[in-house]
Design goal:
The chain is mainly alpha-helical. The protein has a single domain, classed as 3-Layer(aba) Sandwich (Rossmann fold), CATH 3.40.50.720. It contains five helices and three strands, in the order H-H-E-H-H-E-E-H. The chain has a three-stranded mixed β-sheet with strand order 1-2-3. A hairpin with an 8-residue loop joins strand 2 and strand 3. The radius of gyration is 18 Å and the shape is globular.
C-alpha cells in the first residue's frame, strides 16, 4: 500500500523543474507515492479549473473521475514483467477487483455525455467495487474526495506553481 497521497506545501514543485517529488525537493523518488500524488493533483486541478471557469461565468463544467484499477493496458509496461503478470492474475482472475479498459472507458463516456451531469462542476466520481470481494462488479459513484483534495488554497497554489513551471505566469485568477 505504501505512503498515501499528500502534497505537503508543494515545496518540490516550487523548487523548479528538477524535483523528484511534488511535496519536497529533498524527498527521494517513490513511484507509488508519485502516482498517488498525481491523482491528487488531477482532482485539485479539476476543482481549481471549475472554480476559475465559474468565476469567469463561462458556463463550462469540469469534473474528475477515477476509472478503476485497469491492469490490461500499457500502464504497467515499465514494471517488472513477473510482478505485472502475478498482479494482473490476482486482481483480475482471483479477486475480481480490476476493471477492463472498456469499463474504464465507459466511465469517461458517462462523464462526457450523461445528461445527469449537466451543470454539475467540481465533482469527483469513482469506479469502485460493488459488492463483496471475489464477486466482482463495479459501480460508478459520486464521492467526496479527500480533505486535501478539497483544499482550495492548495489547489490555487498548485495551479500557480504549475503555470509558472511551464512558462504561463499570467493566468486568469478568480
Amino acid at each position: 500500500m505504501g505512503a498515501g497521497a499528500t502534497l505537503g506545501s508543494l515545496d518540490g514543485l516550487a523548487a523548479g523543474p528538477n524535483f523528484a517529488m511534488v511535496s519536497s525537493p529533498s524527498d527521494p523518488y517513490d513511484a507509488d507515492k508519485a502516482y498517488k500524488d498525481s491523482k491528487l493533483c488531477g482532482v485539485l486541478f479539476a476543482c481549481e479549473l471549475s472554480r476559475r471557469l465559474a468565476a469567469d461565468g463561462r458556463g463550462v463544467t469540469v469534473n474528475a473521475f477515477g476509472p478503476g484499477l485497469i491492469t490490461r493496458s500499457q500502464f504497467f509496461r515499465n514494471q517488472n514483467r513477473l510482478f505485472v503478470r502475478l498482479f494482473d492474475f490476482a486482481v483480475n482472475d482471483v479477486f475480481h477487483v480490476a476493471e477492463t479498459p472498456e469499463g474504464g472507458g465507459s466511465c469517461l463516456a458517462f462523464m462526457a455525455t450523461d445528461p445527469s451531469l449537466e451543470g454539475v462542476s467540481g465533482a469527483y466520481y469513482n469506479n469502485e467495487l460493488d459488492g463483496p470481494l471475489l464477486r466482482g462488479g463495479h459501480k460508478f459513484t459520486r464521492r467526496e474526495p479527500s480533505q486535501e483534495a478539497r483544499n482550495e488554497d492548495e489547489a490555487a497554489l498548485l495551479w500557480d506553481l504549475s503555470a509558472k513551471l511551464v512558462g504561463l505566469e499570467t493566468l486568469t485568477a478568480a
